[in-house]
Amino acid sequence: NRRILLAQRPNGKPRLEDFKLDEAPLPEPQDGQVLLKILYLSLDPYMRGRMSAGKSYAKPVGIGEVMEGGTVGQIIASRHPAFSPGDIVLSHSGWQSFAVADGASLRKLDPAAAPVSTALGVLGMPGFTAYAGLLTIGQPKPGETVVVAAASGAVGSAVGQIAKIVGARAVGIAGGAQKCAFVRDQLGFDAVVDHHTSDFPSQLRAACPQGVDVYFENVGGPVWDAVFPLLNDFARVPVCGLIAQYNDTGRPAGPDRLPHLMRDVLSRSLLIRGFIQREFADQRPAFYTQMAAWIASGQVQYREDVVDGLDAAPEAFIGLLEGRNFGKLVVHVADH
Ligand code: NDP
């Protein structure tokens, strides 16, 4: 069994030396368990947090342990009555080629309904994050302006398209001309701004002539600085992720801006609300039905960035934190 372990905790940006490739004997399923051959591994920004020992909402991966991650696998052997060899399931098996999993933790996938890799993206955790965070916290109304960064990515692409479906105006922020063209022309956002350009704040202002009613926060950093002055009274800010800060090793330079921020939260009656998607788990059944319908009708499009082979996962993950992925990043581990 080929596995990728956490070799050491990164300091700042992860490097290839922080990961270790390893071979271990195939695990044996016990009663109630199955043996899985992993087909796809999801690479997600939250994994950077799991590599660090600092306090977070989830336990870190231990040194020498298999890196954590969502996976799609095919059952090779089953000791659980609900699963048979050949079934394809969603599991959380991590960065490895084979894994044992409790049957109770699995969700069976229908390969005829959608490509199975989408269970890691638009029809999985990232798509659900967009759906629950935008509709429950953001609550966009027809005619309002919704802004989202990392707009070509797994979460952001769904946020903007759902905003359009409910009648809002979607403004995307993305890195580079190619991603911006995709967000505008393929995903159908009303406007898109490249955050790498030098006059990004003024371009964003021009793209939001009525101000911003919902800012779905995916990145933090300079993008937040550009959006914040544009927030309208009663704007809602679902704080989903802060990827621009995940590799930071200390506090940012410069004066403390918190008193300023709090003054504006008060005077503009802003709602800034963080969330972790599993908080909304009771909405998952509705999400699966709704998102499948939106994909079938063409109202939601998605793009995957598929990397070949488990060995390529560390390099691809490092790239995710630098914006090198273009679409939902998944590793193709094996054929089914
Ligand atoms: P993406 O597929 O969007 O990939 C990450 C993208 O982030 C990159 O492609 C890049 O896009 C952008 N990015 C990276 N670094 C920076 C930076 N310094 N400044 C601005 N943009 C940057 O990832 P996901 O859709 O999976 O995740 C998006 C966000 O959602 C992350 O912050 C993640 O942690 C969060 N998340 C939160 C969840 C929750 O429950 N709260 C659940 C799932 C995700 P570009 O080149 O266009 O800038």
Automatic annotation (TrEMBL):
UniProt xrefs under CDD domains: PGDH (cd05288)
Keyword entries, A-Z: Oxidoreductase
Top-rank lineage group of the source organism: Bacteria
Pfam family, one: ADH_N_2
Segments forming domain Enoyl reductase (ER): 14-331
Keyword Secreted attached: no
InterPro entries xref list: ADH-like_C, ADH_N_2, ER, GroES-like_sf, MDR_fam, NAD(P)-bd_dom_sf
Name of the protein in its database record: NADP-dependent oxidoreductase
Organism of derivation: Brevundimonas intermedia
